[in-house]
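Field log, afternoon session.

UNIT: design team B
ACTIVITY: writing a sequence onto a fixed backbone
BACKBONE:
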């Protein structure tokens, strides 16, 4: 009797997973290049906390845009830094009329630090389109031009892809596995937007209308959630039905960032991401919850097989389906975003992802995590 229950439950979650793969794969096929012809002006907001080692390279890439400097302003919000971040920005601002520094000495109660910093930058912005990136990122020369093509009438938010840049000296396998896993989140975000159910997002390559941000009252009641300055905002804007959201598929708009240096750092990052999923809406929770349940059952069958040998067969069959589904999506996604070099890592990454996803979601929702040298629980 117990084996029949396990088989039935495993079969139901497998069917759900297959449906989710079909749904997301179809979403990738619906993504289209932008064709907007109206030229917008941009306000680039960069929230920085102790980024003295990164902020200069980031700003240099920002000021290498194909758009003339009269078409954008750059607002760096120094979020309580104790290093030389502010000094470096002030030095650059002496020769850049469109660069300004806003300093935060204290975060008010009831709002997470980064959300507060971004909100202050948005409030100070003079232009219609707000563009976010992080201080540890490098943006491409055609970044703003590529974003601009997406903002036709009715588009309130545009999400772009972010990839990892290989740092000299890092183990190639460690980099490849991490880079593919990170890219898979961006591909999932693109697929979900294409399918009409925006789920996740990434604030280091994100643009939105200031009007749309203000219309949903910014981060609203979710301002206290430590993470989610990206996907929770995406969901709030999409939920209004007034604004459409789009994913920027042109590789010319891809932002690069550095991978995490250690396994522990990866786990802390994923815990932070997992901590905010409880705030997603019902449809999003159903889709992701079904996939999460499928992953949990794969691992459960692996261990239960020690007592019920049929569970080993279930484990093998379910993992094969997981791998096949991910292979389909990642083949299309790596082609779409010009990341085919990461394909050899799909098989090992698929197995490692099981443990990473299950562990990070559980620990993120019920434990604590470290971010930018600060310790948080699920709510700030």
């Amino acid at each position: 009797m117990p084996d029949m229950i396990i088989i039935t439950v495993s079969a139901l979650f497998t069917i759900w997973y297959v449906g989710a793969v079909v749904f997301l794969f179809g979403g990738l096929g619906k993504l289209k290049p932008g064709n907007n012809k109206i030229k917008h002006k941009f306000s680039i907001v960069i929230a920085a906390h102790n980024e003295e080692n990164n902020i200069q390279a980031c700003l240099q890439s920002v000021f290498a845009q194909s758009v003339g400097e009269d078409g954008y302003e750059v607002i760096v919000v120094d979020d309580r830094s104790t290093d030389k971040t502010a000094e470096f920005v002030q030095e650059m601002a002496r020769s850049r009329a469109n660069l300004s520094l806003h300093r935060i000495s204290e975060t008010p109660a009831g709002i997470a630090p980064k959300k507060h910093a971004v909100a202050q930058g948005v409030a100070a912005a003079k232009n219609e389109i707000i563009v976010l990136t992080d201080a540890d990122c490098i943006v491409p020369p055609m970044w703003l031009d590529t974003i601009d093509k997406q903002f036709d009438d009715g588009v309130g938010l545009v999400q772009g892809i972010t990839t990892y840049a290989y740092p000299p000296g890092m183990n190639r396998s460690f980099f490849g596995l991490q880079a593919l896993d990170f890219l898979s989140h961006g591909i999932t975000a693109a697929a979900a937007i294409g399918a009409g159910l925006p789920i996740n997002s990434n604030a280091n390559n994100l643009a939105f209308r200031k009007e749309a941000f203000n219309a949903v009252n910014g981060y609203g009641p979710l301002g206290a959630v430590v993470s989610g300055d990206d996907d929770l905002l995406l969901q709030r804007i999409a939920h209004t039905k007034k604004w459409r959201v789009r994913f920027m598929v042109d590789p010319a708009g891809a932002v690069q960032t550095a991978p995490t240096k250690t396994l522990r750092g990866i786990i802390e990052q994923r815990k932070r991401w997992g901590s905010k999923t409880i705030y997603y809406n019902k449809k999003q929770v159903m889709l992701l919850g079904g996939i999460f349940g499928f992953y949990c059952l794969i691992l459960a069958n692996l261990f239960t097989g020690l007592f019920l040998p049929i569970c080993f067969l279930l484990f093998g069959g379910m993992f094969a389906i997981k791998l096949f589904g991910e292979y389909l999506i990642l083949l299309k996604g790596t082609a779409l975003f010009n990341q085919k070099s990461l394909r050899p890592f799909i098989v090992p990454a698929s197995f490692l992802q099981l443990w990473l996803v299950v562990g990070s979601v559980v620990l993120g929702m019920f434990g604590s995590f470290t971010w930018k040298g600060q310790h948080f629980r699920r709510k700030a």
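LOG NOTE: The chain has two domains: 2-27+281-369, 33-261.
NEXT ACTIVITY: expression trials, pending approval
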